[in-house]
């Protein structure tokens, strides 16, 4: 069966790809992915099957050939390169990452981008986002990206857009594929192999896919930009938690801070590492501060293994049974420097004056003081490992029939998705054992033992711990006693029952009126069960309590396609679409969301399209049911007298709240403005959270001139407004609302110590407070020449221009403009674009791709260092130094050749010219944002064999 489409239809169906030329065979592929439905297809964004691939909404399609030209081993990397994407978590997230990768259309957050697989929902995380690493790239036939809201069609989460991953279908034969690549530094190796087998009979088809992907780590110390905590500042930003044992409370006339230097010889009994006070020296940052950056991963390692099955059996000529199943296992890891363990700095675990290892012990002539200490456990890095097993099963019936000379299609099905995750944490300390280990100890029978009091009973099983050892000198016996391995378990699952009917109603001047109706019953559940020690708060890491919850919902939707005119002057086509969806949730109630769209062709070569849509996002499991957890937060207390921007109103409100004269904030980085809280703040869920609401608008043109066959140009304007946006207020926002605006509801979230007014706790819980407005343009061009004596040439441009991305903390708050600015983990590029040139000559092909990110500016956190580009900048409110992140263009190239034995080989290089990312001083780690490429040229080779 062949789709009969006009050039413009092909333009809309194909759209553009990110960094590669789209195959002109996509419309045929679309038709082949359906059952025998009279050439009718279903395009993402509508449930109505039609012979026309055009819709009123902009849809970008990346077919398998386009994906293969990028030399990537995961669908996440492919999607994170498209121009409409913003900032999503990926493998460059080490501290704060969990091995998952996500897509965030319009930079609105991954939980506001709906991800479908074969038009059906996939399993999401507790936070509502889909980990694209649970979907193996080997099974993908194409990806359709709807760049518009679609809650009326698909329900929750489709605010920024929809990503629909279509898996391979009706495949016959066998295909084997292998990929190997690495960076020019000799690291970051990637190996992948996959095999796809398919068989057909007169009434059935089955496809089996196997894949294995191994992606190795890159260390932060292996790249210049990430080898120090802050690029350009060297040892000034190293950690005061030295790898050498450090004393923080020297006596009168002594240095306030002392360290024992490497190379010191223990002065205790044989085999006991005790160091005398004469072996300590004053702490000097230049030689004693610790550079923790090289110990971290820059690019985290990951291994993925998957098995995929998909089958169809035609029960009759018009009824088919369909089923598919997938198993995917991801093993990933992150690594941080050894734990900065301490006693007395931020807890009460002082080294006892009666400890054998305390140099002030009275048996050595000291004063018997308890010691405030620290020691970074470089003897054991902190390693966080994930083993994530994802299961998917779908089974259903679908068919078609004719009634009264009208076509109808239907389907009923059941889907079950589950993700089981086991996390292992290595390198955290058991603080109960630390407390015992730094307690009283003494020598008995030639060995050091823990005692309940000097000369008292031995504490069996206890190993005395010497935190004042120089770097690397903590014994294995001590490590085995104080360290522990945590085991956390997570689960996310959903069950979905769907029934859909679509067909034709009546003949109108423009064609047959079409409709689609359907019902859906869905149940979402999940839990997070931390290790018992973690939940109890007995570890050196952040404590958190279990999370568990579920909700269910019932939905019904209807969609109508109204072709008003066709083939008349001024209206080669005029068509309207209307849809509405009613959703009833067990936790917050019901909501109805509708859409209206139009499609108008004043003449055959020009399409005008537009859409207006309501949308919503239901609060996910973690928002509703997250257990209380600790968070050590960087913040500035606006009641502190050294806080910049302190006003008389703030000062008066702080004084009324009990702030003493001369109050100064105390933090883990010392005294002064903006540091990490000494005591953890509390984060948790909000069972009263409600849905977000949105309104989306698009208006666009698609032009396919007859004088240039193969040329397609599209321009789309889009606008999204989100109200009741869910978010967790930051410490700064809570304090501003309390002490600046006098909102007592926010004041109630702050707990201060009565003794010194220091903040000891702050309740950080998600709330429906904010407003987000974003607007921009998508401009796309594709051109493919006819075959010439020199082969065929193709050109594509896929670009997204952001006009506005503004947010308000509350509807009454001042608007914050984000476009062109950089914040931690949040680059707000004004322009992203991908352009490619593709040349095919017989069995040879060559593709050159350029990926562009526009420049950004950020506040300069290190004025006076000479690092920021504009340190002398002054605004109406005073000095405002900032730093510019320059524009970046990456170049990728791939050459390929079709071999005579039905094989093909591809050689390529991504970031061909080894472009460095721009330095970002607001970046959490590595001094650059993880949305930029890891520094270095990645070269690869792929081989494909077909049978």
UniProtKB/TrEMBL annotation:
Which Pfam families does the UniProt entry name for this protein? Plug, TonB_dep_Rec_b-barrel
Source organism (scientific name) = Coralloluteibacterium thermophilum
> Membrane topology for this entry?
Multi-pass membrane protein
Concerning PANTHER family, the annotation shows: PTHR47234, TONB-DEPENDENT RECEPTOR
Name of this chain's protein: TonB-dependent receptor plug domain-containing protein
InterPro entries per the record? Beta-barrel_TonB (IPR000531), Beta-barrel_TonB_sf (IPR036942), Plug_dom (IPR012910), Plug_dom_sf (IPR037066), TonB-dep_rcpt-like (IPR039426)
Locate the TonB-dependent receptor plug domain: which residues?
Answer: 53-162
Signal peptide boundaries? 1-31
Q: Where does this polypeptide localize?
A: Cell outer membrane
């Amino acid at each position: 069966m062949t789709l009969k489409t006009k050039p413009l239809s092909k333009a809309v169906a194909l759209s553009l790809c990110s960094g590669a030329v789209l195959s002109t065979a996509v419309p045929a592929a679309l038709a082949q992915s359906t059952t025998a439905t009279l050439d009718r297809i279903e395009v993402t964004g509508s449930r109505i099957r039609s012979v026309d691939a055009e819709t009123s909404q902009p849809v970008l399609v990346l077919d398998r050939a386009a994906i293969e030209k990028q030399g990537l081993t995961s669908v996440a990397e492919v999607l994170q390169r498209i121009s409409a994407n913003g900032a999503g978590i990926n493998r460059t997230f080490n501290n704060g990452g969990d091995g998952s990768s996500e897509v965030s259309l319009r930079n609105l957050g991954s939980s506001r981008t709906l991800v479908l697989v074969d038009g059906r929902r996939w399993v999401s995380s507790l936070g509502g986002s889909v980990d694209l690493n649970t979907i193996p790239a080997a099974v993908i036939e194409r990806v359709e990206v709807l760049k518009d809201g679609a809650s009326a069609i698909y329900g929750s989460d489709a605010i920024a857009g929809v990503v629909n991953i279509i898996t391979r279908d009706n495949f016959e034969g066998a295909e084997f594929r292998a990929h190997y690549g690495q960076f020019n530094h000799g690291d970051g190796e990637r190996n992948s192999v996959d095999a796809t087998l398919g068989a057909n009979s007169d009434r059935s088809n089955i496809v089996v896919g196997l894949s294995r992907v191994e992606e190795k780590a890159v260390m932060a110390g292996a790249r210049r930009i990430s080898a120090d905590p802050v690029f350009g500042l060297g040892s000034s930003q190293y950690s005061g938690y030295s790898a050498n044992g450090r004393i923080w409370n020297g006596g009168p006339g002594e240095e306030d801070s002392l360290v024992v230097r490497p190379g010191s010889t223990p002065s205790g009994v044989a085999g006991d590492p005790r160091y005398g006070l004469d072996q300590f020296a004053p702490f000097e940052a230049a030689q004693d501060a610790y550079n923790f950056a090289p110990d971290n991963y820059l690019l985290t390692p990951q291994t993925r293994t998957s098995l995929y099955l998909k089958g169809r059996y035609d029960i009759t000529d018009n009824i088919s049974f369909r089923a598919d199943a997938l198993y995917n296992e991801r093993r990933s890891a992150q690594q941080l420097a050894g734990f900065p363990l301490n006693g007395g700095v931020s807890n009460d675990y002082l080294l006892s004056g009666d400890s054998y290892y305390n140099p002030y012990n009275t048996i050595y002539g000291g004063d018997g003081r308890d010691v405030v200490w620290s020691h970074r456990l470089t003897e054991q890095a902190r390693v966080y490992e994930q083993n994530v097993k994802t299961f998917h099963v779908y089974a259903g019936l679908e068919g078609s029939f004719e009634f009264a000379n009208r076509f109808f299609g239907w389907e009923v099905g059941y889907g079950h998705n589950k993700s089981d995750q086991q996390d292992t944490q290595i390198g955290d300390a058991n603080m109960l054992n630390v407390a015992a280990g730094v307690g009283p100890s003494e020598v008995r029978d030639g060995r050091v033992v823990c005692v309940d009091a000097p000369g008292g009973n031995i504490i069996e099983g206890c190993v005395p711990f010497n935190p004042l050892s120089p770097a690397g000198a903590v014994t294995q016996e001590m490590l085995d006693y104080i360290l522990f391995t945590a085991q956390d378990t997570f689960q996310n699952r959903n069950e979905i029952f769907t029934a859909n009917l679509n067909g034709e109603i009546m003949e109108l001047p423009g064609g047959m009126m079409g409709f689609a109706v359907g019902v859906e019953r869905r149940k979402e559940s999940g839990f997070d069960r931390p290790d018992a020690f973690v939940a109890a708060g007995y570890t050196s890491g952040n404590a958190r309590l279990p999370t568990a919850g579920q909700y269910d919902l019932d939905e019904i939707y209807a969609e109508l396609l109204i072709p008003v005119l066709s083939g008349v002057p001024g209206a080669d086509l005029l068509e309207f679409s209307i849809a509405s969806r009613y959703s009833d949730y067990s936790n917050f109630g019901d909501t109805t969301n509708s859409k209206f769209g139009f499609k108008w062709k004043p003449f055959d070569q020009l399409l005008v399209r537009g859409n207006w849509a309501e949308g919503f996002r239901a609060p996910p499991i973690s928002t509703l049911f997250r257990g209380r957890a600790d968070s050590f937060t960087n913040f500035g207390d606006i009641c502190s007298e050294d806080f910049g921007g302190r006003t008389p109103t703030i000062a008066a409100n702080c004084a009324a709240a009990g702030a003493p004269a001369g109050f100064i904030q105390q933090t883990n980085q010392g005294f002064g403005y903006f540091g990490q809280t000494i005591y953890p703040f509390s984060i948790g869920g909000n069972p009263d959270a409600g849905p977000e609401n949105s309104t989306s608008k698009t208006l666009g043109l698609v032009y396919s001139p007859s004088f240039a066959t193969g040329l397609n140009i599209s321009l789309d304007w889009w606008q999204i407004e989100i109200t009741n946006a869910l978010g967790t207020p930051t410490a700064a926002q809570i304090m501003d609302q309390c002490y600046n605006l006098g909102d007592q509801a926010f004041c109630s979230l702050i707990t201060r110590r009565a003794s010194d007014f220091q903040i000891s706790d702050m309740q950080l819980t998600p709330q429906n407070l904010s407003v987000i407005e974003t607007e921009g343009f998508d401009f796309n061009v594709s051109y493919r020449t006819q075959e010439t004596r020199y082969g065929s040439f193709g050109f594509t441009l896929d670009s997204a221009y952001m006009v506005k991305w503004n947010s308000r903390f509350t509807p009454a708050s001042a608007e914050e403009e984000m476009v062109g600015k950089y914040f931690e983990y949040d680059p707000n590029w004004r322009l992203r674009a991908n352009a490619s040139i593709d040349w095919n000559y017989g069995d040879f092909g060559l593709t050159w791709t350029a990926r562009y990110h526009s420049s950004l500016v950020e506040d300069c956190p290190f004025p006076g260092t000479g690092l920021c580009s504009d340190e002398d900048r002054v605004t109406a409110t005073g000095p405002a130094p900032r730093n510019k992140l320059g524009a970046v263009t990456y170049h990728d190239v791939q050459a390929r050749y079709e071999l005579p034995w039905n094989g093909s080989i591809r050689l390529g290089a991504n970031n061909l010219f080894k472009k460095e990312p721009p330095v970002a001083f607001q970046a959490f780690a590595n001094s650059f944002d993880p949305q930029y490429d890891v520094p270095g040229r990645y070269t690869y080779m792929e081989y494909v064999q077909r049978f």
